[in-house]
Amino acid sequence: MSLFNIIRSLKNVPSSLGKLRHEVRTLKRMIEKLPRELSRAGGVLDAGVAPSANLVPTVPEVQWTAYIQFLTWVNGGMLTRGNVDCFAHAMEFMPEGLPVLEIGSFCGLSANLISLFKRKYGRNVPLFCCDPWISVWAKDSTIIEGSPGFELSEFRVFIKETCLRNVSFFSSDDRPHMFETDSDSFFRDWEARQTHSDLFGRDASFGGMFAFAYIDGDHEYDQAKKDFINVDRWLAPGGFVLFDDSSGGHDGSTAVAQEVKAHANYELVAANPNLFFRKRR
Fold this sequence. Notes:
45% of the residues lie in helices and 15% in strands. It is of the alpha/beta class. It has a 7-stranded mixed β-sheet, sandwiched between helices. Strands 4-5 form a two-stranded antiparallel ribbon. Strand 6 (210-215), helix 8 and strand 7 form a beta-alpha-beta unit.
């Protein structure tokens, strides 16, 4: 090769490197989008493909509107951003015509968000919520440590009334059926197909399958396991279940969610970071 040709080829090196960098960035973006695109296509990653350690299943991110921002500012609650994405995904893809269940409501933030996405995706089905509003982190005391002397019973009433006020305002067009009861009692009455009056004075008929269940009650292993067993009994094929605090935030909920992950009848939709499943059959 002549000296002229060598110099000319060297001049093309920066251009070639720039093109290579562009192609690498494009490929990186495609890889990052792959789990989301697979999720859009069918809600789950192919069960026959073992994802790599870096390929975490996920769902599309919700557009964080001004209303959602305002709601999360005003409505007290403990909720990860990924749970909101899972709520939206469940409301979009869950089986038609079946109710939704929330175990553990606290101040109503998750109930209001679920109602928001029910409205967005035209899901004209009831949302059932059960919560005894008992503070599990203070259950061995009658006085909340560090407070000006608030008793746990006062705190409990305040949280419940705050919840009812929040859902009455933010979900005024489609208020959920809220029941002051623990999940074991709720499922017992659900099996018996009883009719109960909710906290807003409306009668609601129990019984039948659910399309989506959000398990956010007592996070201890034994109770979280019982909640899943009951949910599994009443969750329709193709329905979804989301475990709060199942990404290591609490040992009990995490352990139960890991058991479900190994369950042949459930496929992992997202680890966002909490585990979100769809029932196969």
